[in-house]
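Mods, move this if it's the wrong board.
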Amino acid sequence: MFRALYTAASGMTAQQLNLDNIANNLSNSSTTGFQQRRLQFSDLLYQNEVMPGSAATQQTTTAAGLQVGLGVRPSATEVIQTQGALVATSSPLDVAIQGQGFFQILLPNGQTGYTRAGSFQLNAQGQMVTPDGNPLQPAITIPPDALSVTIGTDGTVSVTEPGQTQASKVGEIQTAMFVNPGGLNSVGNNIYLATTASGDPIIGTPGGAEGLGTIQQSMLEQSNVSVVDEFVQMILAQRSYESNSRVIKAGDEMLQQLNQLAQ
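Not the wrong board. Structure tokens:
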């Protein structure tokens, strides 16, 4: 009886966290480069009333046993690594990755961050930076008198300056990919950090032999969150929460009847 109360309570706690994750996905449905997360669950320990395979008689063993589960716990939040829709913009510094890969960003603490959000701007020194001012790596500087900026599918950045008839190369955008991108650590501001779970970054030329995606200029990758799917998951989470709450209510009523019998 009491076991059922705690088991159902674990289900309610898990669905609360599930709803938190759904709320985060929905709130970022318009965030550039955001990749949705899906909560994964695992069952808790089991109490063995009869151990599977234990001796039933001297010649036979139990085929199934009798095990009672103790509930559920959230085990991980999986990042769904699917391509978001690419939307055209009017800025030549907006870039999107068509395929696998992350842009490399130099963070204030000296670490390298990774992002799918390619809405870059220029700082006072002419460097391409994120909206938060973190420079793209390797650093690319656009001359102040540049008339136009062209970014190729392989990441080559070229500019046209006054008096020139041909564009001149000023840098290359290099992207990175990971063996296990789901193991990256999300730190906010569309930034991921490498971990031992993600493995070391594989850095290369966009569209190259490493399998990295190509660069698309004047495009931004939208969030891959499906609002319809998130609303469906929200309804399922709500119904699961209600079901667990009814188990607690049923357990409470049964305990109440036992107390009345004891009087």
